[in-house]
Amino acid sequence: MRIALRPLGQVMMGTHDTFSSVLFERQGETADAPVPDFFVDLNLDQIFDAITTGRAEYDLAPFFRHPLHDIESVLYRQDILRDLQDGSVRRCVQAFAEKMRISRSSELQASKLRERYQREWFVLDAVDSYCDATARLAEELAGVELTSRGMLGLRTYLSNYVQTSAFADMAQETHDVRRALADVVYSVHVSGFRVTVRRHDAEADYSREVQKTFERFEQGEVKDYRVTFREQIDMNHVEASILELVARLFPEEFGALDRHFAHYQAGCDEAVLRFDREVQFYLGYLEYCQRLSQAGLRFCFPAVVADSKEISARGTFDCALANKLVQLGNPVVCNDFALSGAERIFVVSGPNQGGKTTFARTFGQVHYLASLGLTVPGEQARLALSDQIYTHFEKEEELGDFTGKLEDDLVRAREIFTRATSASIIILNEIFTSTTLEDASFLGRKVIEKVTELDSLCVYVTFVDELASLSDATVSMVSTVVPEDPAERTYKVVRKPADGLSYAVAIARKYGLTYDRLKDRISS
Amino acid sequence: MKAHLMFADRDVDPDQLVAGNREEVIEDLNLATLLDAMARGDKFLLDVSQRAILSSLADPDEIRYRQRILADSIKNPAIVREMYDIAVGAIDAERNVFAGFFRNRPAQLLHRSVEVLDLFIDPLKALRKIADTGSGAFDSDGLTTLFGTLRTELSDGYFDEIADHLRQLKFRRGLLMSAELATGNKGSSYVLRTPGKSKQSWKQWIGLETRSSYSFEIASRDEAGAAALDELRDRGLNPVSNAVAQSADHILSFFKMMRSELGFYVSCLNLLETLQERHEPVCMPTPAPWKPAISNATGLYDVSLALRLDGPVVGNRFDADDCSLVVITGANSGGKSTFLRSVGLAQLMMQCGMFAPAEQFTASVCDVVFSHFIREEDATMSSGRLDDELSRMSDIATHLTSSSLVLFNESFAATNEREGSEIARQILQALTERGIKAFVVTHLFDLADGIYRSNTIRALFLRAEREDDGARRFQLQQGAPLSTSFGEDLYRRLGAWDAVGSAAETEKDAGVVAP
Prior knowledge:
The complex is a heterodimer of chains A (524) and B (515). With 524 residues, chain A is an alpha/beta fold. Chain A has helices at residues 38-41, 44-52, 61-64, 71-85, 87-112, 116-141, 149-161, 165-182, 206-214, 237-249, 251-264, 270-293, 319-328, 356-371, 402-419, 437-454, 500-510, 515-523; strands spanning 185-191, 194-199, 299-300, 303-305, 312-316, 335-338, 345-349, 376-377, 380-384, 389-393, 425-429, 457-461, 474-481, 489-495. In chain A, the strands form 4 sheets. Chain A has a 6-stranded mixed sheet, with helices on both faces. Chain A has a 4-stranded mixed sheet with strand order 4-9-5-6, with helices on one face. Chain A has a two-stranded antiparallel sheet with strand order 1-2. In chain A, helix 5 packs antiparallel against helix 6, helix 6 packs across helix 8 and helix 10 packs across helix 11. In chain B, the strands form 3 sheets. A 6-stranded mixed sheet of chain B has the order 9-10-11-7-12-13, with helices on both faces. In chain B, strands 4-8-5-6 form a 4-stranded mixed sheet. In chain B, strands 1-2 form a two-stranded antiparallel ribbon. Chain B is built from 17 helices and 13 strands. Chain B is an alpha/beta fold and 515 residues long. The chains are: A alpha/beta (524), B alpha/beta (515). At the A-B interface, helix 6, strand 1, strand 2, helix 9 and helix 10 of A face helix 8, strand 1, strand 2, helix 9 and strand 3 of B. Strand 2 (194-199) of chain A pairs antiparallel with strand 3 of chain B.
């Protein structure tokens, strides 16, 4: 037999159909999409894994694989997220979620038990938690300030739902049955193999009498000798026999439990259950951001544009990397970027391990997060809503097979360029490294020309620094080092002309090998 | 029920040791020898004595409370020792009761606890008997109150009540418990009920097959059922076995408290007997308030030294009333360190309520005694040593109160005399202005002489002197510091080496001492 709190369907839909989802205002939930290729390159998989950890029961992953393609949908979510950023709103939703979780676990427990009155008790508990969760949410939402269409819709829906007699009767009956069972007190007499059960008759607590006799010797703190029994939910046959007899001694209480089970084991509302799942998309993300905010990092609502290439961000960072650094107590370096006029392509060069790849990832992450209707890392951001993100990152493990690698690079680049449109974002990281400078320079030129022609947004990480000044479409970004100690990277990527020599000169000075320094040493 | 033999109004707090440099005080004053004499090889008494000595009383009234109990004990040593033995016997008996294999079974815990309670009955009755017969011989508030308590609390009726419980706790007629329904309709909150005290007796309702009670029986070969019944019994017995075990613990801790409080007086009796065998004098010291400064003694000797030596030791007399500083200078091996130890030990003994090793001892009661003694390694001059000395001084300073007593023995010798004197002067000036008292043994003439001349600190100056024939008297005299060190004569006596060459060195190494 399956016992489940199956939704009866949206009983209220006829009158309150303005609200159905806090994620999708119009369209329904679309079919599950596969994990996009760029998730791994941009470390988005790490971010979403961290968010969904501990939330497996909500199956949130499909939501994170589903970017939005119109600004209206993005704003619908941004508004809801803004409401949920308010601690008082978030707290009532969290309290709701916690009770729903208890409800589900009781429901699951009920399905595992054999004894009738045990099963019935857990269904009672599941319904009780559901009613409590829903009624409290309705009550508490009425007392907070909301501005988003989504949350306002939910509020109206809930306040109507909890007033229906279907809900109110269920809540009241559940409460009464529970109360009556909690008041049951019975006595058990065990003598040899015989067990007798009856209603309790107010005999004195014998432990107290013993305590009273000896308390005159009391000298101070005493040890607690009470044994903690291993509490199992199910019963052995002696307990089960006792419970049967207790049910006979208290026929009213247990009769009410039977009736409750028959009526309400499938009493939940579909919209409430859907909200319970969907809102975790926001709560998970807010919780993730909060860990980083506590370390002083900032998130903002990006201005999302569909028809402009003038994008920018200030103080932004790679969330996945920041999450690791914050846990280690290390500082996180933030970067800025901006495109204006004809500028489309960031050509990133400079010392290795200087933050080039991180910059490329950051650029992709903020755009993808923005397309989910979420906040993005940074103090301020204006981002493009793309039709697709394409990435190609150098993979360390692929080094070695030079010819094969170059071939793969070219195949992949070609594939991207055949599919990309002017609304796409293309991120290429250290490709063509497996060839000569001449080849790399040549192929790089080809890439820049192609992207310029497509009018896509692009980040191109390369060691070929002359590519940075190729055309009006390119912007040169350079990873930097600490001037006094060139071996120390700043991980700061700044907009400035590429100069492949400056880093080498600084390292030479540190070792006393610059032209002037070396000459002095030889002469003295 | 309290013994209250250490404090009139409270128990001894075992953790309440006086802060400060305890470890150093123990070592510097040779406390171990004193404690051994008090304990006579008994680890427990050693611990009790050490705690008592290291947790000085700061209130003269509290000291006098113990002094009166000690005086009673000295008058009636046999009775005090007997009571102590009863407590020790009860504690040993409890320890020998088997704890059982299944500590998580309330039924077993109950069984053991009932057995322990049974064992405690006789020692409790023995204490009551002593209270009935011996109390006339005692005058102190502490012991007369204790005897009174024993007589009222351990009445015959009370012993009957305990016997009733011990009978009932065997549960020959089965267990009656109440329960409620918790998560999953499982029984919980089991409370053992007193059978036979309800409106219906259990016999009645067990016999009645009305709708108000239902029964079932498990088959005798149903092992799982028997185990389930055992667990049910254990749940019912859980609170009562806890109550009984705690009761046994209560009585045990009563005996333990008796043992530790009487143990202190037994230790005092031990020490007294040993000192009397050696004909060393003792007196009940007179504790005085911290202000005005009182400190005087006659025949004051180092009790630890007396216990180690075979012959009699020399006592000192001094009168440092109104002084915040006592400066002791003079000949090496002239008894300066011994004197310093005798002052520290007498102070500590007085402040825990003991007798003092002197013909007469009167002193202001301090908060804490600190000691800052030269360490062997400090004698060499190096910055590391001075660091160490100053670091120890800094530790002391962290814990100093304005009613502290500090004993300095050749401190700040790890640098040259001028620097050492300057450091010490600044420290002593600061301490005394803060109301602290110090006994200072020093060979820093610059320091001693400076204090003597300046008159900024009220100080008593004592000097270790030699007779004209060079022999030591080991008795200190009042006197201004002398600039001449007495090291020279020691040097001569041990064999001068102004002119000795390597040959003489070899001879000396071979054990030949030049005349």
